[in-house]
Amino acid sequence: MAFQTKNPVIRWIEYRMPIFSFIDHSVGSGYPTPKNLNYWWNFGSLAGVALMIMIATGVLLAMQYTPHVDYAFRSVERIMRDVNYGWLIRYIHMNGASFFFIVVYIHIFRGLYYGSYKAPRELLWMLGLVILLLMMATAFMGYVLPWGQMSFWGATVITNLFSAIPVIGDSIVTWLWGGFSVANPTLNRFFALHYLLPFVILGVVVLHIWALHRFGSNNPLGIDVKGPQDTIPFAPYYTVKDYFGIGVFLIAFAVVIFYLPNYMGHTDNYIEANPLQTPPHIVPEWYFLPFYAMLRAITFNIGIPFTGVVLIEAKLGGVITMFGSILILFLLPWLDTSPVRSAKFRPLYKWFFWVLVADVVMLDYVGSQPPEGIWVPIGQVCTAYYFIHFLILMPLLGKLERPKPLPVSISEPVLKGSGPVGAAATAQPMEKA
Fold first, then answer.
1. Is 312 left (phi over 0), alpha (psi -120 to 50) or beta?
2. 217 is catalytic
């Protein structure tokens, strides 16, 4: 249905620049959506809300921040103590990063469970992973800006990883640092990129939404829309659910900001950076810990047995493992050979999915512990399972698993269609809808 309004101002603008019909077609009553989406589909819009919060507070903080090694730490303290509501803006921005990652990680695991990466949504999935990589780069550079102890040493350790790359590694590190150590040029570069990258993320989000609207949203049943009877308008049905989700999100966010503002941070970052004093245990922010655990899991050189020939040194092996853990997700649409999308109809895959979730949670905890004792073999086992899950189990499950019968259409279980399949498939979507 074409966009219509009685408001003369909107009609005047719409005739000259049809922006309101575009919005209506994208997120309004003109956008048909599967009628069985549950609350797990709220996390896409929540990620957009978190991004807007981060951009708004980041711009305000940039007005008061001084990107210089002699003044950066003090400028942050000034924001906290002297700028009107500066403490609130900084706590929103600081904890907003954690909430942004929480929302995005849940969004990704929802996609893994319901098979949202499968054809024809491969490009949609890949653009989402590009957003994740840009988020990681932005968050890492932002963590350096307060110029505390953990900021300085975290930047030193992580940027030094690139030196493991043969031939060009040292040149890359020198370029990142802007010299031969983490110093003022490094801080200036990281500040400039940290300010720029959120707008790059915003641009990729537009492409992500564009790709989403090409084939529409996936749904808990993982079957394609058969016709108008399987859809409802996005507005007002799903906008109401999104408003409810945003309300719950903001309440949880406010509780952390006002009662636990430093819970997800590190106390050493309230100590000014000192290049002559190394912290006893260098750890990144919690949302990097699974990848940090994978980095540290490779404690051995890889070479030709019984010859003493080393092909990949332990440091380079850790770097490859860490970046490979994300890059492997780009291949997921082709690694998963099952013709069925949703784990609701894949009994074996469902169990292995929850094993993967437990594995990633354990990696997060292992990454927070010192790289010694029992934590080293635990990290190695968890890292091995992560890659086995994607490279071996998923291709095999697609060939060996016998999925449950799929409903004929989305409407069948939603409207409580007759038969055991309709009844079984109805329970969860109706319960969460």
1. beta
2. yes
From residue 259, alpha-carbon distances to 88, 263, 398 in Å are 12, 9, 47
Encode pLDDT of 335-355 as tens digits.
Answer: 999 999 999 999 999 999 999
Give residue-wise pLDDT tens across range 364-388: 999 999 999 999 999 999 999 999 9
The verdict on whether residue 281 carries a ligand-binding annotation is no
Could you give the domains of the chain? 43-281 (1.20.810.10), 283-402 (no CATH)
CA-to-CA dists, residue 421 to 92, 223, 342, 431, angstroms: 46, 14, 14, 16
Calpha distance 166→164 (Å, rounded): 6
213 tagged catalytic: yes
User: One of 24, 268, 285, 336 is an active-site residue; which one?
Assistant: 285
- Out of 29, 77, 241, 368, pick the active-site residue: 241
Active site residue 241: yes
Instruction: Report how far residue 433's alpha carbon sits from residue 421's, in angstroms, rounded to the nearest whole number.
Output: 19
The C-alpha atoms of residue 226 and residue 224 are separated, in whole angstroms, by: 6
The model's pLDDT over 212-263, given as tens digits with 9 standing for 90+, comes to 999 999 999 999 998 899 999 998 999 999 999 999 999 999 999 999 999 9
Is 404 marked active-site?
A: no
Catalytic member of 242, 268, 359, 364? 242
Does the annotation count 409 as an active-site position? no
Do residues 35 and 414 touch, judged by C-beta distance below 8 A? yes
Residue 68, marked binder: no
pTM for the whole structure? 0.92
- Pairing between β-strand 309-312 and β-strand 231-233 as defined by DSSP bridges: unpaired
Q: Which of 170, 181, 213, 432 is catalytic?
A: 213
- Annotated catalytic residue, options 98, 217, 338, 409: 217
